Amino acid sequence: MPILPIDTGRYGTAEMRRIFEEEMRVQKMLDVEAALAWAHAEVGNIPRKDAEKIAAMASTKHVKLSRVKEIEREIKHDVASLVRALAEVCGPSGAYVHLGATSYDIVDTAIALQLKEALALIEKRLNSFEKVLIEKALKYKDTLMIGRTHGQHALPITLGFKFAVWMREVSRHIQRLRQCRERVLVGKMSGAVGTQAGLGDKAVKIQELVMKRLGIKAADISTQIVQRDRHAELICLLAMIATSLENFATEIRELQRPEIAELFEPFETEKQVGSSTMPHKRNPETCERICGLARIVRSLVVPALENVVTWHERDLTQSSAERFIIPEACILVDYMLFLMTNIVANLRVDEERMLKNIEITQGRVMSEAVMIALTRKGVSRQKAHELLRKLTIKSEIEKRPFKETLLEDKVVRSKLSEKEIDDALNIKNYLGTALKQVESMVERTLKERKSRGIIKG
Questions:
Q1: Are residues 262 and 325 in the same domain?
Q2: pTM greater than 0.90
């Protein structure tokens, strides 16, 4: 009976959950056993017909998960149970199953096979999200909104600029993932302590052949296990991706508040319920789910780092922990990417409200622009800053438009005409290089996508 929400189907996509199902884990280990038997036959260690028999039977169609579990209840060793179950269905050829290998030759290589599929899916999700952000950056390149620092109105930006910043953050994660893959997707066939003694004088060739057949690289050197710095790096990266998604989700949550009301996550008005008691509610529930799941993914970093520590050539402390952290991290990050891509693709934007919100401070957000205008007329920067600080306070206390306060000030009027004040207060005149930056970052991202083999989009 399923207990955890991943198991119940509440969280996770079908594609990623499939990769980490128990039966799939067993199949990957059987794939490694088949590749090992084939490699032995290739170097002349065992008869080819026996290797072919092992390969033919190395499938969950023949090696039933129920039988593996039955044996494990008796002998208390999961890999040895798999080996016995495979040997049973192979008849006399079963004598050559697992020849020269240790358990984690099979387990670690099988993990690499699972991660190969998982990382391909996560990269696909990242590429899709990046594409959506490119589209949004261009669509809203000129859409004015207030930029906020410390939660306060700062200076005007554009919504497209915000999306471009997110886009480049995602692009960096794609770069990290592609680099990390080279270190993470490795298997091993090196025996009990890594010396390959049990594999004989053709051990190096056997390892090379196994990995080539499976489509992954061999670890350059290993003990009884692949060293866990590799997995720790991956979990740290997945936690970073999750945290970026939480950052984006938090921004949308903040901007969906009724007193701001600029962005809104998708809401199915025909049927979706926002609250069990308050019919008017449209909660940013999906963004909040992403934020909550990010906490779980980050929590997996500590056991991943602790797994790096091993007694001598290996101990079993990593095994139990990584049975949780590797599937959970991959399943949750993939799911979060799926959710966030849909949120941003279908985001509702209130451009009129964005303009109204800029006007809340009655022009005071343009104080820096006025300060810069004064410095161009010979006023020292420090004197201009202090003057504008006092004038913004006066405008706020008196609840009067900032322009009126400026026009009444003798220093300002002695330096700036009304037209020059109007120009300084025009938010469209104070976007700096924002639009050019959006265009430049989109162009760079498109080039990177082309280099990755994504020609369209």
A1: yes
A2: yes
